[in-house]
Amino acid sequence: MSCDEDPYVFSSDTLPSDRRFLPPLANGLLGWRVYSNTMHMGGVYNGEGGRCHRADVPCPLTVKVETDEAAQHTYSLDTHTGIFTHTLSSASVTVTQSLYSHRYYPNLMVMEILLVRQMTSEEPIPVRLVSSFTPQSKDIVFESGPDYKGGSHIQGKVTTAEFPGGSCPTVHLIWTHIPQTLTLLPEQSQARWGFILVVANSLDTAEANFDEGLNLMATGNLRPSHEKAWKELWLESQVEVAGSERLCKALIGCMFYLLSAFPSIHDTSSSFGGVSPGGLSNGGDGQDYWGHVFWDQDIWMYPGIALFYPKLARAVLEYRVGTIDGAKDNAQKQGFKGLKFPWESAVSGREVCPEDIYGQQEIHINGDVTLAFQHYLYLTEDLSMFTEGRGREVIYGVADYWVSRASWNPEDQKYHLLGVMPPDEYYYNVNNSVYTNTVAKFSLQFAVELADRLQHPAPKDWQEVAKHLKIPFDQEAQYHPEFDGYIKGHPVKQADTVMLGYPLGLQMSPEIRRNDLEAYEPVTDPNGPAMTWGMFAIGWLELGEAAKAQHLLEKCFKNIQGPFQVWSESSDGSGAVNFLTGMGGFLQAVLFGYTGFRVQKECLAFSPVLPKDISELCVRGVNYLGSQMDWLLRKDEVCIILREQANSAGNTQSCDLQVILKASATKIPLTPGKPVTFPPEPGCVCKLAVTSSCWPL
């Protein structure tokens, strides 16, 4: 399945006039926007508390190529390989500059220059390399170190720790010398040069990676090892549609930029620093949310990655485990027990939001974090994440927080959560946000479930608070008000109550689901953040209203800026850039909307619906209980192929699977390599020996 041109290649003969929309090149550790003077390294922040932001690191690869002759320019991002190229074609020479963040060796960034003579001539052909690099940063005091094997070396520490007594990370840069001119000699028809940059937290790591880079160049394996790593990633996941070239490209762009924000599937360092709304390329002082990690990671970006990559999903959970001490500190400062994950997180898990009210009141973050853990368990059954991996400390700590945060109201005999800010940040200090209370209820129930699986005695309070926590509902209007006292028709910033159905999975009748959608869609800010419309689209798809869903998804295209499929937070181009949150919401609308995928306790449910203009949806690499499946959805049929050899999560043993169709109760075993075809109707994939129903009651 492909569009007319290769949909994985984004090309233009000009660069965007707004340089914020140049493509980011990232690999989960290093992030750089092409031609920018600064780059960032995961986990390297400067500033205390609310002043904490990604530390700017100068980038020696900030080089533009120029020729004396008039030349035709082409700029291209190949998402197959994660390589950005600038090609200059003149009468005498073709110059190709290639840039990439190495996908296998995350401390490594690369620039390659290829000169190819275009006419018979015995003249030398010079090409200028114009650098705007200066070895300085407002966040790090750099000093020159001794050259290492011909490479320049600077090192420095950030100036201010994240919290008093915290450590200040060290950054080392070693890079090969970049001359001002490269020359194609008279006897040469072509010539190639390679330049490497290493960024690391210690001198030993920097030198070891520089040695590796030099060795890769010497053996001709620098680019091939990078391309192989991207090829491996794409073999694990593919989301393509037939019928809309624009949608096809948008989905590929979303997957590419999201994958770029995650570590290598071979990474064993456990040093992943989380995913911020603008990714690693952005997030300096005062920009793109300072590079902090929000609920965006766990609710918006994580689901589309977790469906394919258990290892990358686990990296997100391990990031949250690494912030347990900070979350404990946050809870204590608020006067509560357990763990309070920060609304804005950096490295320690202590609250780094510049404005206190969000950290104090936007407490739904706790349930958002635990929902990611819950989905991981249901997708993988990997209990090691919860035992040796300390995931149970997260789940139990959040449950303890909810119990201490909830207040008993004798009038309605319910527990209340008072003085909160819902996801809709137009309102604050409200009581019983319906989203917050629902996600709290579900995280308490999951704590009880996990305790039972791990044979840990669960405190009775967990079940008691979950059972009696108030979920606001208007009986007369048959809809969910956003919070106590919400007046129907008042403006809403973003998706909030509509997220009860998905991703939270609160059971309700189709009538109530429709009422919620109709109540909030017309009053949601049209200039609100990009991820919102994906959630409305999923709601309408649940109700079989594909045309309405498609109309809402169309709005998202306004957030895609320029030729390189870079998203802005708002449709007018303002807000965070390379807005991964919006990409995640858009991707979920297709992955969980068109397919109807729902991650449930004992099955992966599905209910396919394709809009009129989409003839085919191909989703390859869905990873469930250690097995990988390729799905092909058409108007009149669904085809599933269980892959012959699954790459499991390391701690997940694959098991025999079957498809069960809901209406007929038909059971179809899945056999590796053998296609299974059935009508496009609701059903589920589950273990062959499943004993209980996974259908909602």
What does this structure look like?
This protein has 15 helices and 32 strands. The mean pLDDT is about 95. The protein is of the alpha+beta class and about 700 residues long. The protein has a nine-stranded antiparallel β-sheet with strand order 1-9-10-11-12-18-16-15-14, with helices on one face. Strands 19-26-27-28-31 form a five-stranded antiparallel β-sheet. The chain folds into two domains: about 10-235, Glycoside hydrolase, family 65, N-terminal domain (Beta-galactosidase, Chain A, domain 5, Distorted Sandwich), CATH 2.70.98; about 245-595, Glycosyltransferase. The chain is globular.
Topology:
Blueprint: E1 9-12, E2 24-26, E3 30-33, E4 38-41, E5 45-46, E6 53-54, E7 57-58, E8 63-66, E9 72-78, E10 83-89, E11 93-101, E12 108-117, E13 125-131, E14 140-148, E15 151-158, E16 170-176, E17 181-184, E18 190-200, H1 203-219, H2 222-236, E19 238-242, H3 245-260, H4 295-306, H5 310-321, H6 324-334, H7 356-361, H8 365-380, H9 391-405, E20 407-409, E21 414-416, H10 434-453, H11 460-468, H12 510-520, H13 532-542, H14 546-556, E22 560-561, E23 566-567, H15 580-594, E24 598-599, E25 604-606, E26 616-624, E27 627-634, E28 638-642, E29 657-661, E30 667-669, E31 676-678, E32 683-687
Antiparallel strand pairs: 1-9, 2-3, 3-4, 4-7, 5-6, 8-13, 9-10, 10-11, 11-12, 12-18, 13-17, 14-15, 15-16, 16-18, 19-26, 20-21, 22-23, 24-25, 25-32, 26-27, 27-28, 28-31, 29-30, 29-32
GO cellular component, one term: cytosol
Keywords: Glycosidase, Hydrolase
Protein name: Protein-glucosylgalactosylhydroxylysine glucosidase
